[in-house]
């Protein structure tokens, strides 16, 4: 059963409303849902703004590396296609080797940046998930530890992180000063997640085909797929930047209103916003 007003959180009042929809008066009389004895939720907020800036910088670098990779892959495609066109009569092997080396170097750069970005992004993701625990624990369907672990579960990592992000998004939606709740369209989050999943699947598919390619025409065709995968990754990186900035800004606005429903008053500083430890 869900709240009769927002249809998001479990009801805690006699008239079927959740803590947030009931407002301060309802929060004063309705108890918080009990937490398991082995689990003590975080009771303070920490700003994700510094981590968000680092993630944005790294995602921008990924987009630049993808552009370099696209240029290198198109060069490889051009060299081999030119050889096919004249039956390799004027094929320049040194040029082909240089083109292949440039493509390989771009691939190494992409791998290093992806690893660095993944680490910082997951740290940021865990931070905003812990803040969401303070904002509204009732809309979190999974424990905070899954904000890290969900990314490493094969196949399920295509679904679970989005589920966690949805709970964080809902809890971070700005409320009015009287505790009223409002929803924020999750379009940018849905676009980011869809683009990331498509980019991941397309990249793995195209790379496997590229490794299996032996004939010149096969290499030309699979290189075209690599170009498409890198172009899609650029789109995913841009959408990820928009998602990170939007959610971080939402949490800042939410923190400025206090930590309702855990308390109904007090500025963000009282909730530990910006705490470094």
UniProtKB/TrEMBL annotation:
The family database entries (InterPro entries) matched by this protein are listed as: DUF4328
This one is known as: DUF4328 domain-containing protein
- Mark the transmembrane ranges: 51-72, 107-125, 191-211, 223-244
Domain of life according to the entry: Bacteria
Query: Where does the record place the DUF4328 domain?
Result: 92-249
Lineage of this protein's species? Bacteria, Bacillati, Actinomycetota, Actinomycetes, Kitasatosporales
Recite the UniProt keywords alphabetically.
Answer: Membrane, Transmembrane, Transmembrane helix
């Amino acid at each position: 059963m869900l709240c009769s007003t927002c249809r998001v959180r479990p009801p805690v009042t006699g008239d079927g409303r959740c803590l947030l929809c009931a407002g301060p008066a309802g929060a004063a009389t309705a108890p918080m849902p009990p937490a398991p004895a082995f689990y003590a939720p975080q009771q303070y907020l920490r700003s994700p703004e510094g981590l968000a800036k680092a993630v944005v910088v790294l995602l921008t670098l990924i987009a630049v590396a993808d552009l370099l990779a696209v240029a290198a892959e198109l060069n490889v495609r051009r060299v081999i296609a030119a050889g096919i066109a004249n039956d390799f009569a004027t094929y320049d092997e040194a040029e082909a080797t240089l083109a292949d080396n440039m493509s390989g170097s771009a691939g190494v750069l992409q791998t290093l940046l992806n690893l660095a970005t993944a680490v910082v992004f997951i740290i940021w993701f865990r931070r905003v998930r812990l803040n969401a625990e303070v904002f509204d624990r009732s809309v979190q369907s999974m424990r905070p530890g899954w904000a890290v672990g969900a990314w490493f579960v094969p196949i399920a990592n295509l679904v679970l992180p989005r589920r966690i992000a949805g709970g964080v998004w809902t809890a971070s939606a700005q409320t009015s000063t009287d505790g009223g709740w409002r929803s924020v369209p999750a379009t940018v989050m849905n676009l980011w997640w869809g683009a990331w999943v498509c980019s991941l699947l397309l990249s793995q598919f195209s790379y496997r085909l590229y490794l299996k390619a032996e004939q010149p025409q096969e290499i030309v065709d699979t290189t075209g797929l690599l170009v498409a995968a890198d172009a899609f990754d650029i789109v995913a990186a841009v959408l990820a930047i928009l998602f990170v900035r939007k959610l971080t800004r939402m949490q800042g606005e939410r923190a400025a209103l206090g930590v309702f429903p855990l308390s109904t008053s007090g500025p963000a500083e009282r909730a530990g916003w910006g705490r470094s430890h």
